[in-house]
Amino acid sequence: GAGVSQSPSNKVTEKGKDVELRCDPISGHTALYWYRQSLGQGLEFLIYFQGNSAPDKSGLPSDRFSAERTGGSVSTLTIQRTQQEDSAVYLCASSLLRGGEQFFGPGTRLTVL
Amino acid sequence: AQSVAQPEDQVNVAEGNPLTVKCTYSVSGNPYLFWYVQYPNRGLQFLLKYITGDNLVKGSYGFEAEFNKSQTSFHLKKPSALVSDSALYFCAVRDEKKDTGRRALTFGSGTRLQVQP
Q1: Please, which residues have CB within 8 angstroms of residue B26's CB and are 6 or more apart in sequence?
Q2: Beta-carbon-side half-sphere exposure of residue B35 (alpha carbons within 13 Å)
Q3: Nearest CA distance, A43 vs chain B (angstrom)
Q4: CA atoms within 13 A on the CB side of A17
């Protein structure tokens, strides 16, 4: 079956521009997570969605970051006014149940020039 | 807060030899521990998890991990390494936030395993 997919796989943008990253979780998975993988910070949790509940945004590093999940499925992570320190690989994961095993997508590599 | 530590940035082992990738944890309450592997330009792949039960957990690709409560460790092992095992390995602990129900993973810094032919 299809796994978690993310698009684009690579994104190069200029400092100050906005970017949108997309995640398609595994069908039927109710929990969705965004993580960021960077050289300096390792793997960090960003935001969590569970069903129709309000998201847990406690990992977002600044108010330039936001995310939404439409219809309990596809999620979009938006970074406004990108900075060079936003350069990282953004990983999405989904799980069938709230505490179940997380399946990761291939990630989006973001480079901010 | 929950945390895990991977004390080795890199582990080198010859093909056919046993391998160990170390992980120690610090949690309040019962630990829920995971190992993931990352191949170049790929996402993370789940290897195994410890929730409760037997201290020796068997996972994918012949890997296993031993949960040791007294040493707060969860080392990843394989009896005979393959060149294709060369990758980046992450230990993780589930970090639960009760008010939101979030069960995100807190990862270690990663250990690069290099298996030489």
Answers
A1: B2, B3, B4, B5, B72
A2: 31
A3: 6
A4: 12
**Cα–Cα distance, B51 to A56 (Å, whole number):** 23
Contact A4 B43 (CB under 8 A): yes
Convert the pLDDT of each residue in B22-81 to its tens digit: 999 998 888 999 999 999 877 899 999 998 888 999 999 999 999 999 999 999 999 999
How many Å lie between the alpha carbon of A41 and the closest alpha carbon of chain B? 8
A1 close to B (CB below 8 A) = no
CA separation, residue B11 to residues A5, A58, B19, B41 (Å)? 31, 34, 8, 20
Tokens standing for residue A22: 């997309």
Say which DSSP state A56 is in. Answer: B
Inter-CA distances, A44 with A35, A36, A41, A92, B49, Å: 5, 5, 7, 11, 19
Q: Does the beta carbon of A97 lie under 8 angstroms from any beta carbon of chain B?
A: no
Note whether B5 contacts A: Cβ–Cβ < 8 A: no
